[in-house]
Write a structure and sequence with these properties.
This protein is mainly beta. Helices cover 6% and strands 35% of the residues.
């Protein structure tokens, strides 16, 4: 079964937009929690996990490419065939370097396609049985060269002089690299190919070798870029050779349709995490869940008279107070935004939405399908708590 909420739409002290007086069978609830000391304005969407007509999805800032757009813009571009967006929050932190602006900092899996590699931070995903999970994910992506040796491999990200990065068309029209050796890779016969999926092993034939950077990325091919400090490895590559590309992670994400980076973990096993040292209040975005309900939360901040924001300990305590067994932080600050039923209901700290790399979206689907949003049949066993 998918994620949803059987509760009626709760009283909101800020307007919830069109349809705010939704009936109980709508399946989700939006409310605003206002508190005077400290000044907090918190926006909460509750989703009943037993509803099979609702699902979670992710979006990418540039549509089908890495880029930056606001949550509202990403929702507006959501494919009509994938369902009707009901609510959304901003997603992962992201890179700001000009050539790769909008590259998610951590893992991103959308409709089963691996768009961004893990970077070791706390992430949220829905496993192959439909259960929400959250823990730190590390990358085991690697390339096996024609001589049998291997090297760690990045994915759709900035390539340093001493690293190897694989690029798909998700990056854009070209790799935007400087120097090094780049191999244009093509499919080997009828063996599995694109889109890239976590946990798989692909074979690829070198179609062309370019001894410079910024190679074009054809839609049906990949580009393997070798940094100039690895010149010896690059010199050994030639057309016709076959390399193997492994997209392993720990934990294993094979079969996962949706994953989104974030961090840090806020609640684990119903217990709020603890932090030492000085803590600063900021706008925050988080998501969490228990056996019945999933929660999307945005805390307004940096706005005296409305909301001062929360520290991580305060946010962890708040998520536990909602009833979360598990919860994880997402990007915050000026990025913190919540959209519900056609409008932004939170109060972004910069006075307007800040463009972001991706978003987490609650959608209503006309039929139940085993696509992104993770489905669990009634007789499927629940996953053990992470």
């Amino acid at each position: 079964m998918l994620f949803a909420c059987a509760a009626t739409l709760l009283h909101a002290q800020r307007p919830a937009g069109p349809g705010a007086s939704a009936a109980a069978d709508r399946g989700f609830a939006y409310s605003t929690d206002r508190r005077p000391d400290p000044e907090w304005s918190v926006h909460v969407v509750r989703i009943d996990r037993q509803r099979a007509d609702l699902a979670l999805a992710t979006t990418l800032g540039g549509g089908d490419r890495i880029g930056l757009r606001t949550v509202s813009e990403q929702v507006a571009a959501f494919p009509a065939g994938d369902g009707t967006p009901l609510a959304a929050v901003n997603g992962d932190f992201y890179m700001t370097e000009e050539a790769y602006r909008g590259d998610p900092r951590d893992v991103h899996v959308r409709k089963g396609e691996l768009l961004s590699a893990p970077a070791g931070h706390a992430c949220f995903w829905i496993d192959a049985r439909g259960e929400p999970r959250s823990t730190n994910i590390t990358s085991r992506l690697q390339v096996f060269w024609p001589d049998g040796k291997s090297s760690p491999m990045g994915l759709n990200q900035m390539r340093e002089a001493d690293t190897v990065v694989l690029y798909s068309a998700v990056t854009g029209s070209s790799t935007r690299t400087d120097g090094g050796t780049e191999c244009i890779l093509e499919r080997v016969g009828e063996k599995p190919w694109l889109p890239i999926r976590p946990g798989v092993l692909l074979e690829a034939r070198v179609a062309e070798v370019r001894r410079s950077g910024d190679s074009p990325i054809p839609a049906d091919r990949l580009v393997l870029s070798v940094g100039p400090r690895l010149a010896e490895r690059g010199r050994g590559l030639a057309p016709g050779q076959v390399v193997r590309l492994a997209f392993d992670t720990f934990p294993d994400l094979k079969g996962v349709q949706l994953a989104l980076g974030g961090g840090p973990t806020l609640v684990r096993g119903r217990k709020p995490m603890t932090w030492s040292g000085f803590q600063v209040r900021h706008p925050r975005t988080a998501m969490g869940w228990n056996s019945n309900t999933l929660f999307l939360v945005v805390v307004d901040g940096r706005q005296p008279g409305l909301s001062v924001g929360m520290t991580f300990p305060e946010l962890a305590g708040y998520m536990a107070g909602l009833g979360c067994d598990e919860a994880v932080n997402l990007d915050g600050g000026g990025s913190a935004s919540m959209w519900v039923l056609g409008q932004v209901v939170s109060s972004p700290s910069e006075g307007r939405e800040r463009p972001g790399a991706n978003a987490l979206v609650l959608v209503r689907r006309p039929t139940v399908a085993p696509s992104e949003g993770a489905q669990r049949t009634p007789d499927a066993p629940a996953s053990p708590r992470p």
